[in-house]
Amino acid sequence: MPSSTSSNQGDDQEACVLKFSDLDLKDRNLTHPSINLKAELDGITKKKYSFAKKKAFALFVKTKQIPALPFECKEKWWKCCQQLFMDPVCIHRHVATQHADEIYHQTASVLKQMPMTLSTSKSLRSAERKNLLKEYLTHSHEVSAWLPDISCFSPDQLISGQDCKEGEVLLFYCYSDLEDPHWVCAWQTALCQHLHLTGKVRIATEGINGTVGGSKLATRLYVEVMLSCPLFKDYLCKDDFKTSKGGAHCFPELRVGVFEEIVPMGISPNKISYKKSGIHLCPAEFHKEVEKFLSQASQEQSDTVLLDCRNFYESKIGRFQGCLAPDIRKFSYFPSYVDKNLELFREKRVLMYCTGGIRCERGSAYLKAQGVCKEVFQLKGGIHKYLEEFPDGFYKGKLFVFDERYALSYNSDVVSACSYCGAQWDQYKLCSTLQCRQLVLTCPSCQGQGFTACCVTCQDKGSRQASGPTQDSFKEE
Hints:
The protein has helices spanning 12-19, 28-31, 37-40, 43-47, 49-63, 88-98, 100-118, 126-139, 155-159, 181-194, 216-228, 283-295, 312-317, 334-340, 342-345, 358-369, 382-389, 444-448, 456-460; strands spanning 65-67, 76-80, 83-85, 167-175, 198-204, 207-215, 242-245, 254-258, 279-281, 304-308, 318-320, 349-353, 375-379, 395-397, 399-400, 407-408, 428-430, 439-441.
């Protein structure tokens, strides 16, 4: 499956087939050589034969394409059979003469899947779409068939940049009904290992939620594979992936697992579904709503509530001006917070936000289910996307992230203080008591005096500098 190239938007309906057209090559009805393939086709399919062959040929050539070296003027190079081709005519001639069988199999595969692909129009019914995805899976249940071709890259190219500024961290989620989350888990594990990515990926019948880090080449290939996968193709777009500086070093290991929820709210998706979430607002729309809210003379009397549905240690170091920030330690406490404070939301327009948008999907659905709000809106893409467009907007302070970086900085504002002396400070440290592992805000001056614990109890146990994050301390929240 080639994933180092992306299909044109004009071929959107065929991108899925072209990216995954090798999935059914184990079908014995297709893979036996025959020079009479065209003659065996019916009249309608025969007209598509030339088109399918050109597509198959172009696909094969694209899988052999490699980036040109920076000091060369050539835009495209190809590598095949241990040979380097710098001219399209040469690579085309090589493929035509040396890989005729592969092109035949690809052509037959494209022809067989074309009717299915053309049926994946916007008018395709939900039941038909499920049957289509199931057929894709059963063509080849081996996860290796769903991995990108990295033969044209050296291991150094994939691994380099993982522990320096050239690396990258991806944050994404996708709500999509998955019939076989355990298969997706095995595929995601193999995919991340294949690309030398570390991080966390949660999978459930309701979709997938991931934060992975590695080299920019590895993360680019990962995004291309996800955008091409028929399980997520209709739900994911490039903008759904939030990026930040980092790499594989930001996570102690790779963790991929199957859970009941892709974000742990503590309520079954069967009771509160993402399908009943609030109205999505793009960053620009959300910015205007917040501006309108802050311009009101009395925010307490306003018909709008700006709600931060993150945890208290996240909102402590960064938040929107004028927001309501619940004092909760985990997102699973959010439903009980809403239940206890329904009067705060009665007959109100609620503007919700979180880090990347995923908690708002379920959180807004829960708030709507209580039936007390006028309207519920949520920031699409979360704070991540908002800060990309408005780094000096209404969000002040740092953005907390769930990895060893702890926080990302988009502006110079400091909104939190040292827990001991009250001086401006927003850089978290782990509590020095190893059994505790809570986060604490303690400035360099206080650290120098031995104040390195999160509370009096821990401080009394002795000031022992934490040796650094361990596997046991790396939790979901």
